[in-house]
Design goal:
about 700 residues, mainly beta, 5-stranded antiparallel β-sheet, 5-stranded mixed β-sheet, 8 helices, binds calcium ion
């Protein structure tokens, strides 16, 4: 059962007056934020400004000069784990969060560390995360820096010193919520959501007083237990009136999902906040809501009053969602001329594969067209009703369904960018499929991501009993897509698996990419044509959003490099720390050499019995695979166990799996679920996977 959420007390860590930041340090206020275009030397918010367009007006680095772009400085983090944060730059200081919710302040001209803050997230907080203990960024406001932590805290730091000023627990303790998203600030409030829709729970957004950390309002995205009292939250009225009638069955026992884990945008024109909500939990609507109902407000964009959290409107992109089609992609605010009229709209390219143009005042969808090919869960969006025409078989009630896009989405959370110069929005697009096969029974276990569908067939992209069809996404493609939101048509595409995007006044689009899985590159394309004009190879894939800023008359492009734990096609390498990279014209920094390849496979001498193998595989798939990779194949961000020295050391294996020797790194004890004998079967299974890898490595080296 999901516990009811109490309002946690704020811990004031230091007297507010005594720690007020010195004048000039990160004194970002509403006036500066409202006119961010007047100071293109800074990158003041997660998306560059309140509109979150990720467009830089700086043009010293442009189509003509970009070939001279070279490293200016670099700064190595203290962790190998995933890096997804967009840095902020305010008056020459860069603020960036990293894996484990740590925060650095760096001199934006030199990369010198000014301060470092470690919230000391317990390793156990890594367990209820789908995709590593990442953090996507901080917010800066009136001398304070705000970060959400994986274990659910919102912390305000003195921007001058990194000293905590206040900290508040935003999620119920002892449950499966986490925070990976960036807070947003406006009008003396900090807005923060949370993640966890693969583990159960109810999504919600909270607004806190920016100075004191006191809760101002909270909005739940799905209704709670009908037998319980209301939440006493801003969402009470609308949940009872609109949302509750769209739910059936026992959803409240598991929570229902709808977590707000990424998009969260303040609109100064209308004083409202928009947020995108996650998928329903469990995925299958049969198990979640007796197979019927829209299940408001999952997979939706919701608009609420910024001051009170009062409901304004919602647009549900995927009614009764059951394909992991979170509606959490970045929301971009623009004014577009549509049919001769200038309209205030928001742009959205969510996982479901449709590109939406939505009127900000009303929530009316003005247009919606597929931005990837092959989309097969709906035939179209009916603009009269705003509803998609969902293909009945796509709901996989009677037979499995190979859905396009897959659960990874046509586009996931990775930052998009809009250029007012080209009128185009740049989307890191992917085409993939997921095999959805309903499980007859659903079992909820807190902390284990049972989702109501067959994980085995999902991972292998087809029936688990039939011939394997290769891993999900094997027959996929990825590209940077330049999309015209007015005509709903493609302007150009640049093939390759890429992530966060930045558009600039130099007619450039920068994108961080992955090469062969774990390696990376930062690439610049012409914004108008898509011609590739510059690239720089990095030892780590780049997942995060790049930014542009200027100090002392020199312009910089900066991006956090660091792998994503969910990188596809993993050729493993030595685990390598994440790194902030800053480039400028004629930069002269020399980077350290790349790390070597990963150590070879390390299978034990003894061959596993088929009983041990099969038992071990079942345990592995349920408890280990979502971090260490299915089939024990991992990109080695979270260790590739086939190469682990512990694989040949029974007692070391037990110390980690049963006794929790590596808890501080997120590898907790699994003694609650597994006996030492069970752990041995997992070692047997992984051992055979290691033996297969060893054969592969031997044959590829002999043919070289
Ligand atoms: Ca999800």
């Amino acid at each position: 059962m999901i516990r009811r959420i109490g309002l946690a007390a704020v811990i004031v860590l230091a007297p507010l007056l005594a720690v007020a930041a010195p004048a000039g340090v990160a004194q970002v206020d509403d006036t500066r934020l409202a006119h961010a275009e007047r100071e293109p030397q800074n990158w003041l918010t997660h998306g560059g400004d309140w509109n979150e367009r990720r467009f830089s007006r700086l043009a010293q680095i442009n189509v003509q000069t970009v070939r001279r772009l070279k490293p200016a400085w670099y700064f190595d983090y203290d962790t190998t784990r995933g890096q997804e944060a967009t840095p902020l730059v305010v008056d020459g200081v860069m603020y960036v969060s990293t894996a484990w919710s740590k925060v650095y302040a760096l001199d934006a001209r030199t990369g010198r560390q000014i301060w470092f803050f470690d919230p000391k997230v317990p390793g156990s907080a890594a367990v209820p995360t789908c995709c590593d203990i990442v953090n996507r960024g901080v917010a800066v406001y009136k001398g304070l820096v705000y970060v959400g932590t994986v274990d659910g805290r919102l912390i305000a730091l003195n921007a001058a010193t990194g000293t905590p000023v206040w900290s508040t627990v935003t999620t119920p303790v002892g449950t499966t919520y986490s925070i990976t998203g960036a807070p947003r600030v406006a009008r003396d409030k900090v807005f923060i959501g949370n993640a966890g829709s693969e583990f159960g729970g109810r999504g919600y957004v909270s607004a806190y007083d920016a100075r004191s950390g006191k809760l101002i309002w909270r909005f739940y995205t799905v209704p709670g237990d009908p037998a319980a009292k209301q939440d006493g939250a801003a969402s009470d009225e609308v949940l009872a009136r609109l949302a509750r009638p769209t739910w059936f069955g026992d959803w409240y026992k598991y929570g229902g999902g709808g977590h707000v884990w990424n998009a969260l945008v303040f609109d100064p024109d209308l004083n409202q906040v928009y947020f995108g909500t996650g998928n329903g939990y469990p995925w299958s609507r049969v198990h979640r809501s007796a197979g019927k109902g829209d299940n408001l407000f999952i997979a939706s964009i919701v608009a609420v009053d910024a001051d009170t959290g009062r409901y304004k409107w919602h647009y549900q992109e995927v009614p009764g969602e059951e394909w992991d089609y979170d509606a959490i992609a970045d929301i971009t605010l623009v004014d577009l001329r549509i049919d001769g009229q200038l309209k205030k709209v928001l742009l959205h390219a969510p996982k479901d594969g449709f590109f939406y143009v939505i009127e900000r005042a009303t929530g009316k969808v003005l247009s919606a067209q597929p931005y990837i090919s092959g989309l097969n869960w709906a035939t179209r969006v009916d603009l009269a009703t705003g509803r998609p025409e969902i293909v009945a078989a796509a709901r996989y009630q009677d037979a499995p369904w190979l859905g396009i896009p897959g659960g990874g989405g046509g586009h996931n959370w990775q930052p998009v960018a809009f250029s007012p110069m080209t009128g185009l929005i740049y989307i890191p697009a992917t085409e993939s499929s997921t095999y959805y096969e309903l499980l007859p029974e659903f079992r909820y276990v807190q902390g284990i991501p049972h989702i109501g569908i067959n994980r085995e067939s999902m991972v292998h992209g087809g029936p688990a009993s039939g011939p394997p069809k290769g891993p999900t996404g094997a027959a996929n493609s990825a590209y940077l897509l330049a999309w015209n939101p007015v005509t709903q048509s493609e302007a150009w595409r640049a093939n390759g698996r890429g992530n966060g995007v930045l558009a600039t006044a130099g007619n450039l689009v920068f994108q961080g990419r992955s090469r062969a899985g774990l390696l990376g590159e930062l690439v610049a394309f012409r914004a108008d044509t898509g011609e590739r004009v510059w690239s720089y190879n990095t030892p780590n894939a780049i997942v995060a959003g790049p930014v542009m800023y200027s100090v002392g008359g020199e312009q910089y492009v900066a991006v956090s490099s660091g792998p994503s734990a969910v990188v596809f096609t993993p050729p493993a390498r030595m685990r390598d720390n994440g790194r902030m990279l800053a480039f400028k014209l004629d930069g002269t920094a020399t980077l350290p050499p790349d790390s070597p390849l990963a150590p070879p496979a390390n299978p034990p001498d003894q061959i596993a019995s088929s009983t041990a193998y099969n038992t071990g595989k079942a345990h592995y798939d349920l408890y280990c695979a979502r971090c260490h990779g299915f089939d024990a194949q991992s990109a080695n961000v979270i260790p590739d166990l086939r190469r682990s020295p512990m694989l040949t050391d029974k007692s070391a294996w037990k110390r980690v799996v049963i006794d929790g020797a590596l808890t501080d790194r997120g590898m907790v004890s699994w003694a609650k679920f597994l006996s030492p004998a069970d752990a041995e079967t997992i070692r047997a299974y992984v051992g055979e996977q290691a033996r297969a890898l060893q054969q592969q490595e031997l044959s590829s080296s002999s043919t070289r």
